[in-house]
From TrEMBL, chain A:
Keywords: Membrane, Transmembrane, Transmembrane helix. Its main location: membrane. NCBIfam families: ABC_perm1. This is ABC transporter permease subunit. It is a multi-pass membrane protein. It comes from Roseovarius spongiae.
UniProtKB/TrEMBL annotation, chain B:
Residues 7-231 form the ABC transporter domain. It is a peripheral membrane protein. One of its GO terms (cellular component) is plasma membrane. PROSITE patterns: ABC_TRANSPORTER_2. Keywords: ATP-binding, Cell membrane, Membrane, Nucleotide-binding, Transport. This is ATP-binding cassette domain-containing protein. It holds the Pfam family ABC_tran. It comes from Roseovarius spongiae.
């Protein structure tokens, strides 16, 4: 219990003093996660729409694989990315290991299946509703996908936020590929792991509370933005 | 408007899960005005309209228009038994087919506003279409079909579960379109509506065209016992 209070105290102090190290790693956390999320959405959302509108032979298999990949152990993803990016690996020449880019790559791999699965669930329902009309209007596949993505944007936001939540709190993969290097690849979660390892529970907890606050703030901000964009509920 | 009639359906058959839903149906549609498709529930009216429109896979037979198939497709519109409302505003729903067909947004919006007014939804153009009343939804769906000035318009029970006033508005839209040169093919359970609108009638029974004829004669003195019974309000199976 005293650790918890100590944690709250540490969190408050970090925030009030605008601790420069805290600001640095918090911003890096946000930058890595939001970049990964943006890339993952660009891949996952059109994929989800395509899976909804198009009947092709491997469709069921693809969906099953996506669902299975949702449960990918992050540390294994990290390991695979590590091997690919390591000096001796196939992508070693790029020199990306232990950089934020490597962390973004790992996070993209982790959240694409999650975002695509959740998005597909809701787009499939929307497609069932729209199917007859869009077929009758002789729309192209592109138009169908664009229509689903636009009209389903609210539920897609939920999918994106789920991806954000998974990425911002992820530690296993980015620890492996990022290396938790101070002033280079240290982010909130790896810093927490480090401080916990060192026995600095108060500081670790303090960072933890700040991380939670950050996640909530981003969620609220995105919801608020989407609400002001259009006053009505669909 | 493209010259797409006559429409010639030959041996059209639709089978699903081993069950024959319609067919073989031979049907010619030409001239102008309104063709009304009637028949008991499950007779295959919806299936037939969708087969003619080309959105149902045929298991046998052909549907031929007087123009190439791709051209014919773009000159048709279909209003479904339960209107499909896009989760957008009334105006955005109206201009969707125009935009999908490549019309510039500005021109589409102008035309959309005009139609909003025409169906009495001028003040509601910004409202989500999904919150409209049943009658308003149906008018919107018909306007969205008519906005592309189709040569042929299919309507599947356009006034099912509408009250008298809404039914009259819907019928006015249909009649205006027909007078403007749109060939209309509609199914209905409302015999009053069938009599009011029809130039000719198709009586469907168990997936086949049981009787076909020009409107006044068909309604006045149908040639088959089943059609007579159906028009008299008896239960025909
Ligand atoms: N996809 C399908 N698979 C199996 N049976 C179907 C399918 N679609 C329609 N049917 C069946 O085909 C028959 C004809 O249906 P259809 O909807 O064309 O009739 P309808 O004349 O429009 O009836 P209603 O007046 O009730 O609208 C019905 O018995 C229906 O249950
Ligand atoms: Mg029907």
């Amino acid at each position: 219990m005293t650790d918890l209070w100590g944690g709250l105290y540490a969190a408050a102090r970090l925030l009030i003093t605008l601790d420069p190290d805290l600001i640095e790693i918090a911003l890096r956390s946000l930058r890595v996660t939001l970049s990964a999320l943006a890339i993952a959405c660009v891949i996952a959302l059109p994929l989800a729409a395509l899976l909804a509108v198009r009947r092709f032979r491997l469709r069921r298999a693809t969906i099953a694989i996506l669902n299975a990949l949702m449960g990918l152990p992050p540390v294994v993803v990290g390991l695979v990315v590590y091997v690919l990016l390591s000096r001796a690996g196939p992508l070693g020449v790029l020199g990306l290991l232990f950089t934020p880019t490597a962390m973004i790559i790992a996070q993209v791999i982790i959240i694409v299946p999650l975002v695509a699965s959740i998005a597909h669930q809701s787009l499939r329902e929307l497609w069932a509703e729209y199917h007859d009309l869009l077929i009758s209007l002789d729309t192209t596949q592109r138009q169908r996908i664009a229509t689903l993505l636009w009209d389903g944007r609210r539920s897609l936001l939920t999918a994106a936020l789920a991806g954000f939540g998974r990425a911002i709190g992820e530690v296993g993969a980015i620890m492996v590929v990022g290396g938790n290097i101070d002033h280079a690849t240290r982010v909130m979660t790896t810093a927490i792991a480090l401080e916990t390892g060192k026995g600095n529970f108060a500081l670790a907890l303090g960072l933890g509370f700040v991380l939670i606050a950050l996640a909530i703030a981003v969620n609220l901000a995105i919801h608020w933005l989407s609400r002001t964009e259009r006053g009505q509920q669909w | 408007m493209v010259e797409m009639l006559p429409l010639v359906a030959t041996g059209v058959t639709v089978t699903r899960r081993g069950k024959r839903l319609i067919g073989p149906v031979d049907l010619n549609i030409e001239g102008d005005g309104v063709t009304v498709v009637i028949g008991p529930n499950g007779a295959g009216k919806t299936t037939l309209l969708q087969a003619l429109h080309g959105i149902t896979r045929l298991n046998a037979g052909t549907v031929r228009w007087a123009c190439p198939a791709t051209q014919a497709r773009r000159a048709q519109a279909f209003v479904f038994q339960t209107p499909v409302m896009l989760r957008r505003s009334v105006l955005e729903n109206l201009i969707y087919p125009l935009r999908a067909g490549g019309m510039a947004r500005k021109a589409a919006l102008a035309l959309g506003r005009e139609w909003c007014g025409r169906i009495g939804l001028g003040a509601a153009e910004g409202r989500p279409a999904t919150v409209l009343s049943r009658g308003e939804k149906q008018k919107l769906a018909i306007a969205r079909a008519l906005i592309i000035e189709p040569a042929v318009l299919f309507l599947d029970e356009p006034s099912a579960s509408l009250d008298g006033g809404a039914t009259r508005e819907v019928e006015t839209l249909i009649e205006t379109a027909a007078k403007g040169g749109t060939r209309v093919i509609l199914s209905t359970h409302d015999m009053g509506q069938a009599r009011r609108l029809a130039r000719d009638a198709v009586f469907l029974l168990r997936g086949r065209v049981h009787e076909r004829g020009p409107a006044p004669e068909f309604f006045h003195s149908p040639g088959t016992a089943q059609a007579r019974a159906f028009l008299a309000g008896d239960i025909v199976e």
